[in-house]
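User: ok so my PI wants both of these folded by tonight, can you help

Assistant: No problem, let's get them done. Here's the first:
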Amino acid sequence: MSTIGDVAKIAGVSAMTVSRVINDSGYVKQDTREKIEKAIMQLDYRPNMVAKSLVTRRTNIIAYIVSDISDPFYNKVSKGIAETCLKHNFSFIICDATNQRILDSQIRMIGDRQIDGVIFHDLDIKQAEVDNLLSLGRKIVMLENETNLKSVFSIRGNDKKGAKQATNHLISKGHKRIACLKGPTDQRNSMGNLSFQDSFKRRAWIERTDGYEEALSDSGLDFRMFFDGCVESAMGYSLAQDFVRRWKELPSESRPTAVYCESDILAFGVLSKALEFGIKVPSELAIAGHDGLDMASMIYPQITTVKQQRYTMGQLSADMLIDFIEHGQREGSLLLDEELSQGQTT
């Protein structure tokens, strides 16, 4: 295995000069730099990252902490992070935070270990936790946090606008009785045994419900009908199927002819039970989802859904975090537009 001394010998310079080039820590003449870089390539030299981190006080490692790693929403977000990290010669680790105790442990780990920065996604991080990590030199980007925080950068999807698009699309198809299958928007719920994410996730549901109601109001429609849903996949799927059972029990003149589901998981559940019961989709019941999961376009009939920019969300968050690590933390926010993708269920 080659050493920094071997590189220095071939390039005809001191080991200290090679170190400056590797760590980008001081001025080196361009022709000398080129000699060193050529020697590094010739020897296929790999710097000792532990030793390098002692000099730069950086490890080029970031963490991505999500509330449920099994949720299919996060796959493209993590891909965007991974490809951006590769481009910048960074590594990243994914951490699952399925309850408050684990989340607290993950936050302590970020502070205790040599991790340069962290992307928190779909969590309820508090200002005191942010302030503590920043005081330890960690850099932070928030994705869809429950509350707005100072001193960090946050990225969110425009949930209200997306929900309004979906509902307006159903209205444009002639529907006047449009139901909403939504998540719990306050601490009071009749479901019990909620997942960790459902125990705090309110913001997205509130904004999507507001978008649904605003679209109906703008169109002069008085009909409102709400049904319970949630984030957790198995329970959400089951609640969505319950909606179809209750739909069949309603008099035909009172049944909604369409339903806006505030997540694609809920839309999958509605579609599955509707097909099982022989309900014609979309002529008897039109279905629109939200999130743009890959499966929405892979099943038949393809689900109409509001697509979030999941890959872009990951790419931007990693780009910004790496910039903060290299140039200092910044505060700000970004709202990403969402796009309606029409399938065969509306």
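One down. Here's the second:
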Amino acid sequence: MADLQAIDQVTTTAIDLAFRFGPRVVVAILFLIAGYACGGWAARFTARALDRFHLDPPVQMLLERVVRLIVLGLFAIMALQNLGVELLPLIAGLGVAGAGVALAMQGVLGNVAAGLTIIFTRPYRVGDYISIANEEGEVLEIGLFDTVLGHPDLSRVIIPNRKIAGEILHNYGKIRQLGLEVGIPQDADVPAALAAIDETLRANSKVLRDPAPVLILARLAETRIVIGVMPWVQVPDTGPVTGELNQAILEIFRRRGIPLASPRMEVLNFAAGAANR
């Protein structure tokens, strides 16, 4: 009999709680569902409104998520109020817990703060070629926590954003200027060599016409003349074009009988070193 009375008491209590709090729980769930739906609608509306400003994808995605979270947070507050939850003690407790989490995650929060600075100030964009923190490469991703650079060898470098914010940044943009050098003997026909190199640059479709390539006499050494070849190319073409131009210049020099300077000083130094040994 005692067991039956206990079961009846539990059943009665459960039914009483269901009648007292059931409608509130259902309404709270409906608030959350409505908040999720309204948050998605607000994010889509924000995306359409931001399209006219041509923002970078990370910036637009961040703003959409912030709007979604704000809307969902408002509906969550209404759901908690409907359940009779006292919000002031809850907010105070969250504040204390947030302070402890902030102290424990200073590095992560530093990355987030730096990421927001990068996203909104836009010192570089996806597709730019940058040099920062003793690393360089094409910007593949810009996130809240880090920036991902791509190298020509298909490797990736992940740099925490706090290592970037406040540092000296070299942004090459989407094009780069190569710095090739061609050495010819002192008695070589310099105008012919310059004409051959210029023809080689014009024949390569990856070399940009604007800005125009630069050809200069970079150095006058004792045994040779060094010609500086500085064409502009797209960032992804940096590696391939370097090899293509070196090969093309070598071939056209051989066809036209233009000699390349031999490293005489290096040979003499090596021979002198061998004699001393």
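Strands lie at 129-132, 135-142, 146-150, 156-160, 170-173, 175-177, 180-185, 214-220, 224-230, 232-234. The first strand starts at residue 129 and ends at 132. Good luck tonight!
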